[in-house]
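Key idea: predict the complex, not the pieces.
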Amino acid sequence: MELLYLIEEFFKIVMDPMVVLVIFGATALGTIIGALPGLTATMGIALLTGLTYKVPVNYTFAILMGIYVGGIYGGSISAILLNIPGTASAAATAIEGNLFAKRGKAALAIKVTRSASIIGTLVGVLALALIAPQLSRIALQFSAVEYFLLAVFGVLMCGSIVTSDLTIKGWIGGLLGLCVAFIGYDVISGAPRFDFGNINLSGGISLIPAMIGFYAIPEVIKALARDGADAPAMDMEGSVTESPEALASKSVAGGKDPGSFAIALKNIPVIIRSALIGVGIGALPGVGEDVAAWIAYDNARKTSKRKDEWGTGECYEAIIAPEVANNAAIGGATIPLLTLAVPGSPPAAVLLGAFMIHNIRPGPMIMVDSPRFIFYIAALILVAVVALWVVGILLARPMSSILKIPSVFLMPIIAVLSIVGAYALNLKRFDIFVVVLFGAIGYILDKMKYSAAPIVLGIILGTMIDENFRRALIVNKGDPSFFVTNSWISLVFVVIIAYVIIKQMVPRQLGSRVNLKNLRGFLAARRPGGTPPRP
Amino acid sequence: MEKSTLRRADLLFSIALILGSLWFMIQSIKLFLNPFGRKWEAVPAEAVKETLTFWYKSPALMPFFVSLLVLLCSVMLFHVAMKSGARLDFIKKDKIAAFLKNREFQSFVVITLLLCVYAFVLIPVCGKLLVRIRIIRGFPFFVATFIYLLSMMLAFGHRKLGHAVRSLLVSFLVSGIVTYAFGTLAKIPLP
Amino acid sequence: MNRMMKCTMMLVIAVLAVSAVFAEGQAEVAYPERDITCIIPFGQGGGTDVWARKVMGSMAKDLKVSITTTNVTGGSAGSIGISQVWNSPHDGYVLAATSETPLTIPVTTPITQTSKDWDYFIAGGSPGLLCVNSVTAAKLGIDTLDKLAAYGNKASLKIAGTTGGLWFALASLVSEKNYGNWPLTWVSYAGSGPAILATVGGIDADLVVASAGEVKDYVRAGQLIPIAHMSPDGYTFKTDAKSIDVPAITKVIPGIAKYLPLQQWLGFKVPSDTPADVKARLTSAFKVAMADPDMVKFASDQIAVIYNKSGVEAKTMAQKSESNLCWILFDLGKTTYSPAERGIAKP
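Result:
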């Protein structure tokens, strides 16, 4: 029945060529906004909400949903090409995605993430249209305890993100990220924290400027510091992962790329798991695409049958999982937005504002007041998926030719975009300062082989851990035993977390043995013919 | 970075982290006792007593715990670095001088400095001086961006005339596009 | 490095010199001659945000320029956005969207400006209601104010909200020792949306104090029951199907009447030393916007009262709220500075 409504709304939209055109344009614009380092999906929606104030309502939502879908996908393009995630949710994609680009397979990787995004968005739409009421009921069962455990689960990932040096550096990075997140006004007590009387610090360090600093500025420095900065970015050598074997395999695989959907089909189990993670995490109020992408990445890595491929620039799972999840989270995040009037992610928060301005009040009564609205929004996303497919084909080639621009021209432009983007989000001069400061710190940390990923993860999850831990204790008057006994959801979490900790800690000592394992993986990758290039 | 150099850097960084985490811990204890940052004499004994009873409400709880974990991790890092033979033997005049002359380090300093000049000198100064010119929205930003882009491109490119001309063209176009697209089309306030 | 520095210096000097010539001779014209920016100190989708965008949209039509609304969030009580407006030129081209919450900035942050330093334009606001989750209400038999007042084990009840603002002050009037002295447990959330949701879920909280507009749909869906109006008067909650009579909180806790009314209001403000002609133009545009039929419909959808106050009237209202809010927060030990040292009178 619900499926019929969805199809009906879909055809109603398709019947109006103007709306279809608008969605195509918006999706393309969203992709470009998402791909520009410094400009995020959230900002794209906020921007267009302001600009479309006077536009008729049926176009407004077409535009906003197009931007949303395009923006979340677009973030992966710059993550792959430049190792700078264009949007927070693409940070997990950058880890492996950029290795593809370094091996000369940028265009293929962009195609694969596009297919992944399309599949993910589709699953999200179906969830939104078919099981929104059920999912929002489960989301309401999440209390502070479950949110806390989910965040702990996320932080535990720090130990398993691919690093080229000691595992403990992942932990240190994650913990430092948490410390950054603690700065600023504390919601529970209303107290200012670690602001030392500084009004800017009392607002806290925002995620986006910090992320731009950690990713974009070190890339700028690294590219320009190399000799021959006038050469195109693609031909730059001397990176850690560039081995003769990899280059050799590049020429082999570069000849004929397998179809991106064919690659996706080979990874069906990963796709299904990631899509479910994306929808589920997205449906939780306040937990967004970025967390979904990380958890899917971690899940794919832990369950991978080809673990030695991770970190070589050949592992499709590593880019498919986060991209499926972050796009599936769009449909997921729209569920609490429409049924509970509480956004599931930062972009959805902006959407909520847009709804209210146009006198549409989402909430528990939406199925009574305007029963078709959910299907209308789902159908819009569905059209945007089609648009993404077309736009993705059109944009893949020109986008990957960015790598042909000499870095002496490209990198200063990225620096300017970083500054503009960081400022435009919140209009704070302090955010520009954050970009520059964290950029310098990020470069030094990068030299010492600390990955930016766990730090950003720490910043994302810091408040969630801190607030929900104390909220759970307050609700239960300081007695911590309920972390296990609260509900079946929390029990499942505790079991998983305990398993992950035991698996990470017990079999190997933190220092030397980890080295050994990394070395083994390293050797396996270097052994001539050791890892044949995957199709 | 070579492995031995990396471990030396680790050693130095672990010491910095140990000190940093200790400082963070002290700040957390201060926050625990006086969450609203009042003058110490203005903190009533009653409030401290309440904090101790309701310890789990304190904003300092997680920061303290996390700083403890950072301390633990940095001690481990120190241990790993020491075990792989790193010592603080590199703090010598000639080594530091060689480090300072390193091309990559110099580029790092120049890029960071130029970025600072752009963000904290060029943009505000142009903003103050040129605010009255309204050829396009965000003209001061255009000027600041143009100067920054050009100097970056000239500083890191070839010393040839062709490159200089190209740089001039590219930076003019890019700053124009960025200013127009953001300031006029999208109506984003520019810095 | 030298080459680069020289380049930079030369360019700076050249460009600045050229543009200084251009800069001469620009005459002032009547306000507004260019686009206006409205800074919203809170996040998207919240009450302040939605109202500001609506009011600014209507005012832009009358002022015949476009008004860009931007969210500058962070800090305690929206202090970052508000201080950014204060630090901009006081020329009427940067407005601050506001609610009653930023009135607590002088006692919670080092910023010293109080309501004396601002001129207010108060559009409207929604009444504050104490609501109980319907499942809890049925289980414990506390679906009316009288029954809740008589309920013995109040210490087991949890009340959700955001620490520091209006709803916190109102909830504290009920629960704190010096006021209502109902020993409820306070559970804090990042905004009223999450707080309401936690109450609806019923796991983390049983009660919530929030605006009628925000809880409207949950009341209609039967998930929340409004049991008290946080004001000295009763209130009739009208939905399409039924109307619910909500008694005044002072019916069971008469002692807090002197702190009331303490109500939500939303609108915008400009620094007081903005030129008088600019303020007059803003006032007339504001009046036109408030009479817009679209605005009236919007307010009724939000179950809000339109206040339409500016000038002295609005300032008096702001000062009363400021005094109440700041002193209640101070009594609760939630301030860094005392209202006395900021020159805020005791209620």
